[in-house]
Amino acid sequence: MKNQTGQRWHLLWLTTILVFSAVAIRAQQTVSTSSSKPTTTSSTTGNEPPVTDDLGSYNVIASVEFGVRGLSVSGNDNKYRSDLNYGNGVRLFDSSFLLRNKEGNGGLFDEFLVTTSGWGGDPFGGTRVSVEKSGLYRFDANVRRSRYFNALTGLANPLNAPIGQHTSNTRHNFSDFDFTGLPDNRKVRFYLGYSRDMREGQGTTTARFSGDEYAIVSNTETRANDFRAGIDANVLGFDLSLLQGARYFHDNTNYTVNLTNQGNNTTNTSRIDQLFRETPAQGTHFWTRFTAHRLFARKLDFTGRYIYLNARSRYSFFEQTTGRQSNGNLAVPQTATARGEARRPSSIGDIGLTFLATSKFRISNTFRFDNFRINGEEPLVDVLRQRTLAGGPLATVTTVSFFARTTNYRRFMNTVEADYQFTPSYSVHAGYRFTDRYIQLANLDRTTTLVTDSETVDNQTHAAIFGFKARPVKAWTIYFDGEHGNADSVFIRIGNNDFTNFRVRNRINVSDKLSFNVALITKDNTNPADVITSPNVPFGTPPGALDVNVKSRHFTSSVDWTPNGKFSLSSGYTHMRVTSIAGILLPINNQRRVGESQYYSRENFFFFNAFVRPTPRLTFYAGYHINKDEGQGDRVSPSNVILIDSYPMSFQSPEARLTLKLNRRLDWNIGYTYYNYQDKFFPIQNYHSHLPYTSLRIYFGRGE
Amino acid sequence: MNRLLLKALLICGVVAAAICWLTYNKASQSAEFSPTEIAMFASEDYVGSDACKDCHEDQFKAFSHTPHARLAGNNSWKGKVTGCESCHGPGKAHIEEGNPKKIISFKKKSSKETSETCLGCHAGKEDHNNFRRGEHWRNDVGCTDCHTAHSSVAIAGNPGSNTLISEAERRNRDLIAANMLRGSEPQLCISCHRETKAQFSRPFHHKVLEGLLKCSDCHNPHGGFELKQTRLATGVDAGCLKCHTDKQGPFVFEHAPLKVEGCASCHTPHGSSNAKLLTRSTVRQLCLECHSNAHEIGAPDTPNFHNQATLRYQNCTTCHSKIHGSHADRFFFR
């Protein structure tokens, strides 16, 4: 009796809380001026129109921050460089420069904007340029660079050495230039574009020779130049777009060994004394994209697109190796050569239709067809000149082989969906996606014998998509969507077969100064395997032993609060959880055994950013973030057929900065950033680093 | 049992009543003007944007700096309605009567209805023309959720991280104003897609938070025909290959999933603890999960001599180093 009474009061109290919460949120509407728009941290300083400096008929708004950064790394310097790679010394932290014509009608340009960041001690940086003459042209340039350093313990490390055998120290420079003629014209617009991609530097990789693997030096050099030209036009009510592109690519990477290398396998006698390999490849990719769009009678929206690509790679291959073979004889040298090409014509066609049946109800259908075919050949000549260890002559062995490969792929995909808007605050959508794929792989290998092989995969997938958006009160918006699908077979075992995904997001904008975000994303994927009829599976394997099950859960929450121009706080927490259990066949001591591959991620992420401005001239910023993955926890593999893996680690960084406004044009900054990385499985990779810095920021066109 | 059911129904009823009360008077008021009425607006009903300035000075000032405001001086727009009335309809009646209902207001319109106004001009560009079939549209996220035609953009003019997003990009309202965005990338995108901030904070990640890349470099926020609204590179290829040019091929010996399933079958592009952005912490687990052929198709089995009990065979790419494709070796050795 007492329990029932208690439950009754509990339920009544819960209901009361719900109702009062709803009333409280509803009451906020009387003061809230925001809708469910993304919130950016507001600032009274940011909203005030700037006082500009003048350069003739142009206003100038500019700033540049330069200074010096120190660096101290304790622990694994290679891991620090692989993760962060911030350097010390003088730096141009960032800059921006805006010229804007006062009348909005300049000579060569109306606006000219340049921004830079990261030049100096940063491993990456860029410069963006944007120039516009209203109605006549627009030019955008984006020049970026990245220094990629990678030297880790856990990567390609069969010898358990301090550093693995796959390392990299390369520069990657990539830039994009785009010119638009008549950008605001209703009838016609022109496009020209150019992009350049360059990668070069040194590193190490591995090569095989005579039953062993060897670390070798790689000298990377790749280049790609992309050209684009196009036109948009409105013809007979259709919005048409034609874009023609071409990529010219070449890869001149080579590989060398100049010092005797005994290899990874200490049980055989093979070694490499010298190696040189190059596979220069030149590729061309010519493509055409045509798009058409029209809205018929304000009711039927039509978009069609067709893209065709003709890709071709021409290569030649040369490898020369001197050393000792596993049978004790010397290779003096072994030379392999090949020359050939690969071709890939491919096309995509899309049609999208949306029927706006009423102002509340819409039906859409999207149909896609895409296909490609890849053909390639390798005529390989291998010449082994050899002699005995004592120097005695041996017969030269010449092997001529020919390999050809074909991949055919064709896919149809159709998505039909509908959405209904009950009110501006409530809408639902639902749809169905069907995919049909046909994949054919054909091989031809001619060595001492001729072997051909071919297999085809015909795979269909059905997926239902659904969701809703609800805004019970102005300040609170809920987004929910889900997808459930299944396939009759898969091409790869870890691909989506039977999957169910959900996503729900809550955005609560109490006011334009305070907002909350809460979201949950779940993904479940199951790929059942056929163990009964497969000849590769050991007899007696129970059903389900080779199934694949992957579950992931993401929970995220955050708060943004900017009560005034003197204080701001942003903080959040995310939990990411992945559990993957896949039955596998793995060879143990020359026997194929049924086992399991288990992967766990239990990652927690927390961050906060805060700034406070106690006086108009003094600003203090502090930030902190931490990623911590507990990984598999206490789980330990009970046998060598059960693989349990994860990446338990902790990566955190507090940061603080003090800014003193000296005058209208000058700020002085002093700051400090700390990084701490802790690796549970490879503690040799632990490091922590200190990065103090000081800088001056000079302004042109800033108010008092 | 019946009592429990009654209690549950009572609670649900109270909650439903509360929701109904909260949403009272939320009936659509988006149809102040029907499409028929809009089509019948006469040219003499338009008064020009300067007339709006007297009462809506803040919006006018913010609007005057946008690309929309410059259309009036463009020859191809001569004779067309530009300025405030191109979205809000003719202003004559609204000014004469001072009646807010005599002008098109978007305050109570749904995201889709508001977006239809924008799409009236912007649907024709290739970047936008599939917006009605994209993820944002499907989930009722409209144009004005990210863009603003005339609101004062609340820029984060306050200091922030020294390494995450440069000050130039954070402070520079004009960089944002070029696309009339409400905020800068990636903060604008992360304001909804919060889980990506955690992914981009992992040790190895694409440098989005640092400003080297933008969300829109890989994704088209306006929809598209690709799943996840990803962009294409060089015509039909995945957007990854715009920068990772050495993986494009075509190769004589293709690693089929790369072209058939896509890069995301092995990689998690936002961020990973694995240095190669793999979906598993070690490469051998990733390989074995496919190369365990219980089906009659697909990846070949791992050969028996690849003894997984020895360290030598636990690093697949030590031998199979050209795993994205090779011209020279069918087993991707070189």
What is the total tally of β strands of chain B? Answer: 4
Protein structure class of chain B: mainly alpha
What's the order of the H and E elements of chain B?
HHHHHHHHHHHHEHEEHEHH
Average pLDDT number of chain A: 88
Number of helices of chain B: 16
Extract low-pLDDT stretches of chain B. Answer: 15-32
Number of strands of chain A: 31
Task: Report the major sheet of chain B.
Answer: 2 strands, antiparallel
Account of the 3D structure:
The complex is a heterodimer of chains A (704) and B (334). Chain A is mainly beta and 704 residues long. Chain A is built from three helices and 31 strands. Chain B has 16 helices and four strands. Chain B has a two-stranded antiparallel sheet. In chain B, strands 2-3 form a two-stranded antiparallel ribbon. In chain B, strand 2 and strand 3 form a beta hairpin. Residues 15-32 of chain B have low confidence and may be disordered. At the A-B interface, helix 1, helix 2, strand 2, strand 4 and strand 5 of A face helix 1, helix 7, helix 9, helix 10 and helix 12 of B.
Fill in the keyword field for this structure.
heterodimer, A: 704 residues, mainly beta, 31 strands, 68% strand, globular, B: 334 residues, mainly alpha, two-stranded antiparallel ribbon, 4 strands, elongated
Helices, strands, pairings?
The complex is a heterodimer of chains A (about 700) and B (about 325).
Chain A: H1 2-28, H2 44-47, E1 53-55, E2 58-69, E3 72-75, H3 77-83, E4 89-101, E5 111-119, E6 124-133, E7 137-150, E8 167-181, E9 188-209, E10 212-235, E11 238-251, E12 254-257, E13 271-278, E14 281-296, E15 300-324, E16 330-356, E17 361-387, E18 397-423, E19 426-446, E20 450-473, E21 476-487, E22 498-509, E23 514-527, E24 548-564, E25 567-588, E26 591-615, E27 618-629, E28 642-646, E29 649-663, E30 666-679, E31 687-700
Parallel strand pairs in A: 26-28
Antiparallel strand pairs in A: 1-2, 2-4, 2-31, 3-31, 4-5, 5-6, 6-7, 7-8, 8-9, 9-10, 10-11, 10-12, 11-14, 12-13, 13-15, 14-15, 15-16, 16-17, 17-18, 18-19, 19-20, 20-21, 21-22, 22-23, 23-24, 24-25, 25-26, 26-27, 27-29, 29-30, 30-31
Chain B: H1 2-22, H2 35-39, H3 50-53, H4 57-64, H5 85-88, H6 92-97, H7 111-122, H8 135-138, H9 167-171, H10 173-177, H11 187-190, H12 195-199, E1 204-205, H13 215-218, E2 232-233, E3 237-238, H14 256-260, E4 271-272, H15 283-290, H16 316-319
Antiparallel strand pairs in B: 1-4, 2-3
